[in-house]
Design brief:
The relative contact order is 0.17. An eight-stranded antiparallel sheet has the order 9-11-12-15-20-19-18-17. A five-stranded mixed sheet has the order 3-4-16-7-8, with no helix packed on it. The chain is an alpha+beta fold and 274 residues long. It folds into two domains: 1-30, no CATH class; 38-273, no CATH class. It is built from six helices and 21 strands. The N and C termini lie far apart (48 Å).
Amino acid sequence: MSEATIAGGVVMTVRNQIDYELQNIKLPENFERKILHNAKPKKTKWKYQIAVLILCFILGGTTVYAGYVILNKININREMLPDLQPMKKKETKKLIADQDEIGDYRKEYDTYDALCEELGIKLLNSDLSKNNTLMMIQRKTDNENWEEIRISPYILGDISKIEKVEGENFYSWERGKEYASPVDLLIEIISSEKQLKSGWEKDYLGTFAFVESYQSKQGYLVNILQDTTIEEKDRNMGYKSKCYAIFVADGIRYTLSGSIELEKMKELVDSMHY
């Protein structure tokens, strides 16, 4: 592997050099919102696309399946993955909040129960997330067509010394034996007929690979994706590839993601219940 040298004579691999440079990048406070704004479904423009830091594109499109529109087509580098169960329209309560500069409504919650109460619907949850007082739960919606909920960290597993980085919306931690990172949860909800007919697809670009499609013990069809950048020597040091489990339950799409082994991710999917 190619190598680079930084001040002080420290030799780094190209991969570590990239990590070093990224640590010193300072982005504007509203950078993430501007990027993610274009990744949401629009009221009238139903085909949309945006790259989120090279990792994920969301693209419009539809496929008819058993009387429903399949809105959960997942692609890796534009290669279509096996179908999941169809997303369906869900009635949610409007979010009482001021619109932000890009027209979204946002709110943060301290507990999962508070989120579900304000949404007005039940969501899957895992007992493994109980007693996690560090959850950052953000609900984002246009109050008409779609809902997006991001929960981080959702499941802590056996990581230790987790603490929020001062002034930032993320945490630092020490890897455990089974969890090299916490597991996050993304929930996506269709809340209008327009959005249902339009479609909500995702395209993961870059170093992702499709691992397998299987049926969970609850009967959900699940697509497993994995980052392919981890080398064997990194695994020997305790690093794990980031794993994604994507499935649709009762018309709502869930994505669990974290640096854990495949079988552990399957256990987490099986732990989700009402």
